[in-house]
């Protein structure tokens, strides 16, 4: 029997375990001291302690995870998202030891993990990119001011090795440039081990649209349509939906075609996401980045295309025949919307609020309601990891009914003992501009007084 180790924690580890069970594959969990009693540890067939609470001492310790792989005699590793999921060295380390990496090859991770390299490859594939600058290292800022003027203000300072909205800061004038660059570089060095940055034009009223892709290697790839991911705070998403509302179908088709071209060019293997910035007024779109892993928001795609992306990842990695999955076989039906429930205080700039959850319950008897979580009543949300408690995903025949189901589920949710963003999510769903299908990345900042 095949055996897969999940090099992650929380809801994504639980999510992968569910797909492995469905495929008849045994699972191995790893856990830090803080996660000794976590749900993913309980769900797995085997579990191994890998270090102290800090991620740097546990979930980011590639050598320790490899030791567990060899001890437990696993066939493959699924990295989930975050942590080591886009770490080329970790992927190579596993492969060098005869362990299957459930993800794209190391070169694709390397190419797309470097934001400037990814931009160059997008241009080569005929995909529009925003005006940007060359890279600047910690030690070399020569020509920074002139490069910023060419890009144009407002602009974004972006960590070359960043992802998920981390390492991205807005600069509105030349006076704030140097300080923002220095602070972004220092943060990027601490977080990613690479303080290199580049600058990119900022679209004032933008929408964040992503295309789910899946590559089979040798230039064969498909898309699974688009997701709307514009409702964000601190450049991180909190509400996502599929399909994206209010965008002409021709624009969606063009984005999907561009995403597939880039994926094919990479001879990409497995699940990936091509992210675009879309001008909310002109509908002109630009390549933002490619994430070479499963995304947090993948459930809205699964619900509208009747697929299991994690199972597809695993089956491809184990060499199973997926030739029956073609572009023609993927159809999009209905509407799905996801809300991320966080232990945070929206009134205090979404400050994380660790603590013990004395009671947590969401009714999932309705087949149109899906809950992805790694948290139960009595569990503790610690300060060591992302404070996301759960993802609540709801489906409907059309957008209005999907939103109504999500709204009802959030209202009926019982979450006691910890500050959370549920009321904020409900207020966002109720907002007239959101209901009208007019999301944009500045939505929360613009309507903050209505939402908090």
What can you tell me about this protein's structure?
With 452 residues, the protein is an alpha+beta fold. The protein folds into three domains: 3-102, Rossmann fold; 131-201, 2-Layer Sandwich (Dna Ligase, domain 1); 206-451, D-amino Acid Aminotransferase, Chain A, domain 1, CATH 3.30.470.20. It has 16 helices and 22 strands. The chain has helices spanning 10-22, 39-43, 62-72, 88-96, 106-113, 115-124, 144-151, 177-192, 249-265, 298-305, 309-317, 399-412, 422-430, 432-435, 443-446, 448-451; strands at 3-6, 26-32, 46-51, 76-78, 100-101, 155-163, 166-171, 197-201, 206-217, 220-233, 236-242, 269-279, 285-291, 335-342, 344-345, 351-352, 355-356, 359-361, 369-373, 380-381, 388-396, 414-416. The strands form six sheets. An eight-stranded antiparallel sheet has the order 13-12-9-10-11-14-21-19, sandwiched between helices. A five-stranded parallel sheet has the order 3-2-1-4-5. Strand 6 and strand 7 (166-171) form a beta hairpin. Helix 4 (88-96) runs antiparallel to helix 5 and helix 12 packs antiparallel against helix 13. The protein is globular, with a radius of gyration of 21 Å. The termini are far apart. The mean pLDDT is 96.
């Amino acid at each position: 029997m095949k055996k897969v180790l999940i090099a992650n924690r929380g809801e994504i580890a639980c999510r992968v375990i569910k797909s492995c069970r469905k495929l008849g594959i045994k699972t191995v969990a790893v856990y830090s001291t803080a996660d000794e009693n976590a749900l993913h540890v309980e769900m797995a067939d085997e579990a191994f302690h890998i270090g102290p609470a800090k991620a740097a001492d546990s979930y980011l310790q590639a050598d320790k995870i490899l030791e567990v792989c060899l001890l437990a005699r696993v066939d493959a590793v699924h990295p989930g998202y975050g942590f080591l999921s886009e770490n080329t060295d970790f992927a190579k380390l596993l492969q060098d030891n005869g362990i299957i990496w459930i993800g794209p090859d190391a070169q694709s991770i390397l190419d797309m993990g470097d934001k400037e390299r990814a931009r160059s490859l997008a241009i080569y594939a005929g995909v529009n990119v925003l005006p940007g600058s060359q890279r600047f290292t910690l030690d070399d800022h020569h020509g920074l001011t002139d490069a910023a003027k060419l890009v144009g203000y407002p602009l974004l300072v972006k960590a070359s090795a960043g992802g998920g909205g981390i390492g991205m800061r807005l600069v509105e004038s030349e006076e704030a440039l140097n300080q923002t660059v220095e602070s972004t570089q220092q943060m990027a060095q601490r977080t990613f081990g690479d303080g290199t940055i580049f600058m990119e034009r900022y679209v004032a009223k933008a929408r964040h649209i992503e295309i789910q892709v899946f590559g089979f290697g040798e230039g064969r790839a498909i898309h699974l349509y688009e997701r709307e991911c514009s409702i964000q705070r601190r450049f991180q998403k909190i509400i996502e939906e599929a399909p994206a509302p209010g965008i002409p179908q021709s624009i969606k088709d063009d984005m999907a075609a561009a995403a597939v071209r880039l994926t094919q060019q990479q001879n990409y293997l497995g699940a990936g996401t091509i992210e675009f910035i879309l001008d909310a007024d002109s509908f002109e779109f630009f390549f933002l980045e490619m994430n070479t892993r499963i995304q947090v928001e993948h459930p809205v795609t699964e619900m509208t295309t009747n697929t299991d992306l994690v199972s597809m990842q695993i089956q491809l990695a184990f060499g199973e025949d997926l030739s029956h999955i073609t572009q023609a076989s993927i159809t999009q039906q209905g509407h799905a919307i996801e809300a991320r429930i966080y232990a945070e205080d929206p009134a205090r700039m979404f400050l994380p609020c660790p603590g013990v959850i004395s009671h947590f319950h969401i009714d999932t008897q309705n087949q149109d309601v899906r809950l992805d979580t790694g948290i139960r009543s009595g569990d503790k949300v610690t300060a060591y990891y992302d404070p996301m408690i759960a993802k609540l995903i709801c489906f409907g025949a059309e957008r209005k009914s999907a939103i109504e189901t999500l709204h009802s589920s959030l209202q009926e949710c019982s979450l006691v003992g910890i500050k959370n963003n549920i009321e904020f999510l409900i207020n966002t769903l109720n907002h007239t501009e959101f209901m009208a299908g007019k999301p944009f990345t500045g939505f929360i900042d613009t309507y903050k007084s209505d939402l908090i």
